[in-house]
Amino acid sequence: MTATTVLGACPHDCPDTCALVTTVEGGVATKVQGNANHPMTGGVLCAKVSKYAERTYHPERVRTPLKRIGPKGSGQFTPVSWDEALSDIAQRLHAIAQRQPEAILPYSYAGTMGLVQGESMDRRFFHQLGASLLDRTICASAGSEALLHTYGGKLGMHVQFFAESKLILIWGSNSIGSNLHFWRIAQEAKRHGAKLVCIDPRKSETADKCHEHLQLLPGTDAALALALMHELIVHDWLDHDYIAQHTQGWDALKARALQWPPERAAQVCGLPMAQITQLARDYGTTRPAAIRLNYGMQRTRGGGNAVRAIACLPALVGAWRHRAGGLLLSTSSNAPVQRARLHMPQLLGQRRPRTINMSTIGNALLDTQAPRIEALVVYNSNPVAVAPESAQVAAGFAREDLFTVVLEHFLTDTADYADYVLPATTQLEHWDIHTSYGHTDVLLNQPAIAPVGQAKSNTQIFRELAAHMARYDAAFTAPHFHDRDEDLCRQAVEGSSIDFAQLLQHGFAQQSLPDAPFAQGGFATPSGKCEFYSPALEKMGINPLPDYLSNYEMQSERYPLAMISPPARNFLNSTFVNVKTLRHIEGRPELEIHPADAVARDIADGDLVRVFNARGAHVCHAAVNGRARQGVVVGLGIWWRKDGANGTNVNELTHQQLTDIGRAPAFYDCAVQVERQP
Ligand SMILES: Nc1nc2c(c(=O)[nH]1)N[C@H]1C(S)=C(S)[C@@H](COP(=O)(O)OP(=O)(O)OC[C@H]3O[C@@H](n4cnc5c(=O)[nH]c(N)nc54)[C@H](O)[C@@H]3O)O[C@H]1N2
Ligand SMILES: Nc1nc2c(c(=O)[nH]1)N[C@H]1C(S)=C(S)[C@@H](COP(=O)(O)OP(=O)(O)OC[C@H]3O[C@@H](n4cnc5c(=O)[nH]c(N)nc54)[C@H](O)[C@@H]3O)O[C@H]1N2
Ligand code: SF4
Ligand SMILES: [Mo]
């Protein structure tokens, strides 16, 4: 049998956005590999996506539309035809929309990062209906808005130039697990003599391989950044010229930083003072110095301020002058796409529906104030597992008067609560176009195989739903509800520097951008400067100057341990949890705990433990493996609730309070107690 290869893009919420090559034999995808021609991918994929074919042909794939026959949450369904499912859904949505369109809520995130399957026909459909809007804050909005109010957008260093850096701070990022291709570049820098410093409450795989590890307490990064500034000031390791020309608010920031001598920060961060002064010396005297920040450090109350404080550092030492100096959190503002062309917000007409924050979906579903959410359409997300305070989320999804439709590959925790589950295609089965938040290339994904079972792409499902809605409302017959996926891919980059023919041929296209974005200033802020002091934040009633904000949940006698729950290396959020080979590597839901904290509770490695606070309890196995610091416990990965020993996961313990900037969840700002499960 002859084998063909098809070019694609990894759909996952990962800064690397790899280029894929899928081998197809007799209509079956037999291998998914990295595209060797794409510089960032370099022919290498992470372990997860190497198993993409296993996930695609998984025996538990949802292959037909399903209708609920048991109680909500029971996961009991019967197969129905597409026509039956879509006519009924259209009729139900229409009945609600006639009365109160805002009672309908779409709920989606980055199960696929594709612009077409993630934010095109779906947005048009819900805008035409006049449904409530969703504030998509669950991951990155604290850091994104912090960057917006400091640099003017999600802008920063180009990842490839870290190879030339002499000092790299890997700050709140387990790069080996979640940013593998950056780690490859950092390794190259290390071989050329760069010093690597990891700043993370957990002794991660990445911390193991760095020269230094500052194992600070969760949520204390701003205090550390302010103390670094203090040292830069008192030792005069400053680039006065860069500060004078390209920053705003230096006097105010300086006054604040001088209140943060290293001994104060050492107390707050739970670090030896010498580690802070040494880091300041390294940062103040090494050129070029680069910071790889990741979103893991902004999931606490003060996450936005922490990102702003750290984002000020490169300007103080003039690191931006060199292409291998500066900071990278996200560069997605460089993406050459016209989202409005895909979303078509004009379909709202004069209507201005309310916006619901996805991070507080638990509260929103239980809110009895009008207009109550009566229908929920979930796709590209698994909120029952990933949203904070699961007990509230699950109670919301269990409401008998809520009509829920879930577009999915698998019967996830969320799908279990659906009235209808609709089988969706995977990346091997549909078209899509991708930009990245960790590099600046654009990638095209072409379908490699026919849909598995009766699966349809998200776009196809919304096109067909629109056709069913047209029975009640002629607006749904408009031509933009007929655009094909390949056309939507073209629309995304129309009028930009990206050549679609090149995407079709090579699978990716690179943009030409300046090497060092802020070498001559030119920040995208209203002032054109790096805004230490942000008038825009001030207008919003938010502290205009970066500051340290202590966590919502400080350790107390009752709940003396701080819990963080960062990603597992072999899962992607709650995706891949059901893929056997990957699950086998991750083992079982665990709580990492420091030996002293374990001994004090008579807990041994491998014991079943109960982690609890006022919101709930989660039962899992203790791992006394040297990765947790004293006072901090780590529940790694977002397992499915139904796999938990007591039917819960870590989000049973997290709360719905939001970050200082960006209205995001504070997943890693969570106090708990732990006991051996009797
Ligand atoms: N393998 C894998 N890769 C992933 C994901 C996954 O689930 N698995 N998730 C993807 C997603 S959605 C995202 S948003 C990205 C980025 O996701 P991030 O959340 O940035 O993920 P990591 O880089 O793994 O982890 C962040 C690190 O921050 C640490 N940390 C926790 N609290 C603090 C703190 O207060 N301060 C500091 N300095 N560090 C802290 C954690 O211990 C962890 O090692 O990764 C993506 N990549
Ligand atoms: N405690 C704790 N909670 C967290 C985090 C944490 O670190 N700790 N991380 C948070 C972060 S950073 C994020 S980004 C969120 C992630 O939360 P989600 O966006 O919900 O991500 P996933 O859990 O990966 O679930 C994505 C779902 O989309 C489905 N999917 C994928 N592709 C398609 C498609 O083409 N069509 C359809 N219909 N479905 C598709 C997958 O099968 C999967 O079930 O979780 C957050 N929750
Ligand atoms: S998850 Fe990240 S590292 Fe893995 S293949 Fe996708 S983009 Fe690459
Ligand atoms: Mo995320």
Automatic annotation (TrEMBL):
UniProt keyword terms in alphabetical order: Iron, Iron-sulfur, Metal-binding, Molybdenum, Oxidoreductase
Cofactors demanded by this protein: Mo-bis(molybdopterin guanine dinucleotide)
InterPro entries for this protein: Asp_de-COase-like_dom_sf, MoPterin_dinucl-bd_dom, Mopterin_OxRdtase, Mopterin_OxRdtase_4Fe-4S_dom, Mopterin_OxRdtase_prok_CS, Prok_Mopterin_Oxidored, YoaE_C
Iron-sulfur recorded as keyword: yes
Residue ranges occupied by any 4Fe-4S Mo/W bis-MGD-type domain in the UniProt entry: 3-60
Domain of life: Bacteria
A Pfam family recorded for this sequence: Molybdop_Fe4S4
PANTHER family referenced in this protein's UniProt entry, alphabetically: OXIDOREDUCTASE YYAE-RELATED, TRIMETHYLAMINE-N-OXIDE REDUCTASE
Family: Belongs to the prokaryotic molybdopterin-containing oxidoreductase family.
Name of the protein: Molybdopterin-dependent oxidoreductase
The organism of origin for this protein: Comamonas jiangduensis
